[in-house]
Amino acid sequence: MRVLIRAAILITLGLIGSAVSVAGSIESAVDAKHRDMMNTARDVYRNPIETLQFFGLEPGMTVVEMTPGAGWYTEIIGAVVAGEGKLYAAQGPYNDVPAYQRRNLARFFTLLSANDDIYKGVEMTTFKPPYQLAIAPAGSADMVLTFRNLHNWIGAGATDGVSARLAFRAMFDALKPGGILGIVDHRWPEDGDVEAGMKAGYIKESMAIKMAEEAGFRLEAKSEVNANPDDTKDYERGVWTLPPVLALGAQNREGYLAIGESDRFTLKFVKP
Fold first, then answer.
1. Which of 20, 33, 118, 258 lies at a C-alpha separation of 20 to 30 Å from 205?
2. In this predicted model, what pLDDT tens digit does every residue of 208-234 receive, in sequence order?
């Protein structure tokens, strides 16, 4: 309700879609008028203020966002680091990708072109393991963030976790010593079957921690800010049954909307 009220106020004032000045803080970036109303409606599930505060995002940082898709978090991170900071958007390649990725890239380019005052500090790089791993200049980043990507890198379509291990190597190499790696992903029960979790789009928190530590990272902290105890994780179409995808369409739509987005772990690592 809070999100809907705020969106209605913005529409009434004619602020949606207009130009915006550099936001600076996480709070002002989340509330800024450049954000798409469909994106702000997801704030109640994704908790961007609390999540980015937990990771320690600050203005002026050099940040890498891994495979940002259509740019849900880019809207916020780009505004926080605009000015003195820099954001590398490590997208997938432009060609030889599924149709949904091409659609996301088209939306991402539209996002960047619509607000040059915010996104002029965004530089596109390409992440396609094992061929393209230079997501940012080595040792240049204060922070690397990845939201709901790890299950793809390690799950169906990844060969024995090779893509995930290469992703961790690329993220480690991009960070400065003392730099932060933040990971958010769909959480599978620790006593659950690994393969079943991968097929459903979830991953065990312990697997994420193990792979990060094997790459050289040190676990700094955990947060339950993106936990959702209502997520039963036993759906016909896996995690994609829940919003925002709602893979079953009208079937029990209201029930899945009531559950909300998935239960997620939120992990903060440091490069020693």
1. 258
2. 999 999 999 999 999 999 999 999 999
Helix axes 74-81 and 99-114, enclosed angle (nearest 10): 30
Amino acid symbol at 207? M
Cα separation, 182 vs 26, in Å, equals 16
What lies within 8 Å, CB to CB, of 220 at 6+ separation is: 180, 268, 269, 270
Residue 251 backbone dihedrals phi, psi, to 5 degrees: -65, 115
Superfamily of domain 23-28+46-270: Vaccinia Virus protein VP39 (3.40.50.150)
Distance (Å, whole) CA 52 – CA 56: 6
pLDDT tens per residue across span 24-55: 799 999 999 999 999 999 999 999 999 999 99
Q: Pick left, alpha or beta for residue 226 (phi over 0 → left; psi -120 to 50 → alpha; otherwise beta).
A: alpha
Check: pTM over 0.70? Answer yes or no: yes
Backbone φ, ψ for residue 89 (5° rounding): -100, 100
